[in-house]
Design brief:
- The chain is mainly alpha-helical and about 325 residues long.
- The protein has one domain (about 5-325).
- Helices cover about 80% and strands about 0% of the residues.
- It is built from 16 helices and no strands.
- Helix 14 crosses helix 15.
- This is Inorganic phosphate transporter.
- It comes from Candidatus Brachybacterium merdavium.
- One of its GO terms (cellular component) is membrane.
């Protein structure tokens, strides 16, 4: 891969990191903002700082290598198929990053939470098909299983936690001040977990590009801080359309529901990072937790048309991104 193409991929990875923070990480504090546990500016600043710390912590504990990056991104077969022409892999990465970024912009515009990981995996599938590489169906299957189990676990846990909060409140063992403090702490945990979970994606893209360009992994390691800063900077800007969907359109969120949702999301993301090889979507997890908390107070407390639209976007993500990436990769290869 040429130096210019590597620089292009690295720049797109940083843009993707920034928009990932803008699109996803703001979800972490959407409930705290909606329930007025924290002022919006304070909540966004807290989330940005914790995303930065989480990203650095998550990146510092991994051993950056080409094999790690390819396995994480599901690009092993694509790399093998393009080993004789590194530039081909570079253009495929350009296509994948552009489509992933484009899907994030589209879902932000309609105010729907969606997974950056799922968009990336779908794009990788489409790009692989376009260059004639074997698709990583096993990796995609693992992602789909995680995307089903994760939200269901989060919703179920949030439902149970909400009932526990109701019981404690009934006996006056948990007051509104306690709930808002605990919600702030749990929102911070989700923000930290998001940084640890999602900063790996852009760094892995850079690691794959560096290896293809014949560079040492120290080049990719040098991007750790820029990636973490990009995620934090995006978080600070705040994806307000998605915050509004999770905090107001999906249900009329109370402090108790916010606490249940944030606590359950933090626990689910933490457990997934410890026990799964496939990253879990923080967006899906938190949104499902909000649904579970609302459902604990009765089905009428959830706005099901909004929830249905959200699920449709989730299901469409890998399909639409795969088609778009296959088309864009084909166009790029025809031009070059």
């Amino acid at each position: 891969m040429s130096l210019a193409l590597f620089a292009t991929v690295a720049a797109l990875a940083l843009v993707m990191a920034y928009y990932n923070g803008f699109h996803d990480a703001s979800n972490a504090i959407s409930t705290a903002i909606t329930t007025r546990s924290l002022p919006e500016s304070t909540a966004l600043a807290m989330a940005a700082i914790l995303n930065l710390l989480g990203a650095l912590l998550g990146l510092l504990v991994i051993t950056v290598s080409a094999q790690w990056a390819l396995q994480l991104l599901g690009l092993t077969r694509l790399a093998e198929a393009t080993s004789a022409d590194p530039d081909l892999l570079g253009w495929a990465l350009v296509s994948i990053c552009l489509v992933t970024f484009g899907w994030e912009v589209a879902t932000w515009w309609v105010g729907m939470p969606s997974s950056t990981w799922h968009a990336f995996y779908g794009s990788a599938l489409g790009a692989s098909v376009a260059v004639g590489a074997a698709a990583a169906w096993d990796h995609l299957a693992m992602m789909l299983v995680a995307s089903i189990i994760g939200p269901l676990l989060a919703a179920g846990l949030s439902y149970a936690v909400m009932h526990a909060i109701i019981a404690l409140g009934r006996h006056e063992l948990l007051r509104i001040g306690h709930m808002r403090f605990a919600q702030t702490m749990s929102a911070g945990a989700v923000a930290t977990g998001h940084g640890m979970n999602d900063a790996r994606l852009p760094l892995a893209v850079i690691a794959v590009a560096a290896a293809s360009a014949g560079m040492s992994m120290s080049t990719a390691v040098s991007f750790m801080l820029p990636v973490a800063i990009a995620v934090a900077a995006g978080t600070l800007m705040g994806g307000h359309r998605i915050i509004r969907t999770i905090g107001r359109r999906l249900t009329d969120l109370s402090a108790a529901q916010g606490l249940a949702a944030e606590t359950s999301a933090a626990a689910t993301v933490g457990a997934a990072m410890a026990g799964l090889d496939v990253p879990i979507s923080t967006s899906h997890t938190l949104a499902s937790s909000v649904v579970g908390a609302g459902l604990a107070q009765g089905p009428r407390h959830v706005r099901w048309p909004v929830a249905r639209s959200m699920v449709i976007v989730w299901l469409a993500t890998p399909v639409v991104t795969a088609v778009c990436a296959a088309s864009l990769t084909g166009v790029l290869l025809a031009i070059i």
